Amino acid sequence: MDKDNIQVHLMKSSKATREDYFGKTICYLCIGLITVLVGCILYFITSRGIATFTQNHVKLGQFLSGTNWNPGVLDSHGNPEVGALPMIVTSFGVTILAALVATPFAIGMAVFMTEISPKRGTKLLQSVTELLVGIPSVVYGFVGLSVIVPTVRHIFGGTGFGILSGTLVLFVIILPTVTSLSVDSLRAVPVHYRQASLALGATRWQTIRKVVLKTATPGILTAIIFGMARAFGEALAVQMVIGNAVLMPTSLVSPSSTLTSQLTTQIGNTVMGTMQNNALWSLALILLLMSLVFNLVVRVIGNWGKHKYES
Amino acid sequence: MNPKRSNQIATGTIFGLVAIVVLILIGLIGYILFNGVPNISWHFITAEAQAFSAGGGIRDQLFNSLYLLILTLLISFPIALGAGIYLSEYASDNWITNVIRTMIEVLSSLPSVVVGLFGYLLFVIKFGFGFSILAGAIALTFFNLPLLTRQIEESLRTVPNLQREAGMSLGLSSWKTVTGIILPAAVPGIITGIILCAGRVFGEAAALIYTSGQSAPVVDYLNFNPLSPTSFLNPMRPAETLAVHIWKLNTEGVTPDAHQISSGASAVLIIVILIFNLGARALGSYTYRKMTATK
Predict the structure, then answer these.
(1) What CATH number has the domain bearing residue A133?
(2) What are the phi and psi torsion angles at A80 (to 5°)?
(3) Domain range for residue A24?
(4) Confidence (pTM)
(5) Rounded to an integer, what distance in angstroms lies between the CA atom of residue B49 and that of residue A264?
(6) CB interface of B with A, residues 177-236, below 8 Å
(7) Which of A247, B69, B224, B267 is found 20 to 30 A from B180 (Cα to Cα)?
């Protein structure tokens, strides 16, 4: 039995519906693509990063706690010398120090922009932070190399390359990130909290310290973590001023090497699939895992903040 | 200490901190421009780079940076647009959306050197692109996507719901509403977002060292055939960008006037990015006025 034309026409989806499906499909494909890409990154870096442990049979504990980094050489027990501890310590060292230096400045800037300054000052500082964000990290590295390193050498002796110079460069790099996120979280504190506090006769500083900063604590912590994630992953600027000697750092001005600096300088000099190369990919895996950890911490703090506001 | 006194001290400290940051910025920009601008000349911008002798320029690097930027935006913008539309218009509040958002967050917080290494592993080696502009552009796409997607989503979200309701009440399909009403209204925000991302991409180097490579072979600017290996348009040739050039000069360069070249190149880099930022703001407000009939 043939359906007549009208029935066919009526049973078909309309042009609008088809367009809708078409558009929706495109959007779903795009978002699917992004998800697949992230999956790919995680898979490929992980699969290469664990080769050191699966193919070359290095023990994880040895990798994380050894202090000799010389992947091409075997030690007296016949095991390759792949102790990543000096780089891990240096990476965490510069990250934490940079965050410690940057936090007071960032909070000062944020408080100034949201609580103290008139509108024009806020606008000015807004453009200052945007400008700082815009400067590429190689330029920071270059300025660090030509200004900070000689200054550090002059004042503290040594070569000038080392954790101290790395910290100073990273401090400027993460400052705008931490500042702008802190500003967001201070802005999110409702105005009536401040009004209530001021109406009780509190001074401006009392209001800021006991009401505004307290309420915004989760947001500020998130800002600091984001800054640390940025600092941990920063490669070239740090590489240019840290000295790149894989040694356990003994002082703030002794040359050392971070995970990122070791990766950027060495991976081009090794052959794919060799022990040296696998060890470097394991460093990349550590970086990847740390970035995931930072993400997780931000999430936990976010939930805690939500909980705090709602109860 | 009485509250009044501590109030004064705190305010003073905050003013001090802010002043230090502003001084750092002025010192930084001042240093780069004062050292760099005297090195910028027509010769500097149009001459080839020299590896072993003084007096080299940055012509190829500057061109590579711009070409890479355009290629990256061509690849990443459509994807980010689709993803942005999905997140702001279609995404329902369930676990799938949650997973996707987490993925985007993860992507945006990955260190750029990890993204670069991934590009090296997959495109340069596995797919056999070799060090090429295309591999660099794809790696930068990764780096760019989360930022751009979020920008587009934000600017779509700021379009008032009334506009969506108006579209629906006219009997338009939701896709028509999005493309015909919501997108045009969000164009100023999207343009600003693109230009800001372009600034980030322009200065990026860590993701490029092992994807687009560190060498700038001589190219012929009159050869318009993109398949020819000497053509400036060929996306499969290795290309050193300006930011990578600065890095290389300062780490392993043997060029005698490395310092002058890197100060000049840094100044060029910063000036271009400043132009991008100011341009983004101006263009954003201009299109906003044009398209929304606000005075």
Answers:
(1) 1.10.3720.10
(2) -65, 145
(3) 3-49
(4) 0.87
(5) 23
(6) 178-179, 199, 202-206, 209-210
(7) B69
What phi and psi values does residue A135 have, to the nearest 5 degrees? -70, 125
Lookup: tokens for B250: 């300062």
Q: What is the ipTM of this complex?
A: 0.87
Residue B125 carries which DSSP code? I
CB contact under 8 A, B175 and A105: no
Same domain, A106 and A37: no
Please check whether residue B122 touches A, CB under 8 A. Answer: yes
Residue B96 touches partner A, C-beta closer than 8 Å:
no
Cβ neighbours of A112 (radius 10 Å): 22
B220 Ramachandran zone, left/alpha/beta (phi>0; psi -120 to 50): beta
How far B222 CA sits from the closest chain A CA (Å)?
31
Alpha carbon of B224: minimum distance to chain A alpha carbons (Å): 31
CB contact under 8 A, B175 and A294: no
In the predicted model, is pLDDT for residue B98 greater than 80?
yes
> Does B7 contact A205 at a Cβ distance shorter than 8 Å?
yes
How many domains, in total, are found in chain A? 2
Would you say residue A243 lies in a domain? Answer: yes
CATH code linked to domain B40-292:
1.10.3720.10
B31 with A147: Cβ contact below 8 A:
yes
Evaluate whether B245 touches B161 at the Cβ level (below 8 Å). Answer: no
- Tell me: do A219 and A277 sit in the same domain: yes
Closest listed residue to residue A274, CA positions, set A84, A51, A20, A99? A51
Residue B35: closest CA among chain A residues belongs to which residue?
A143
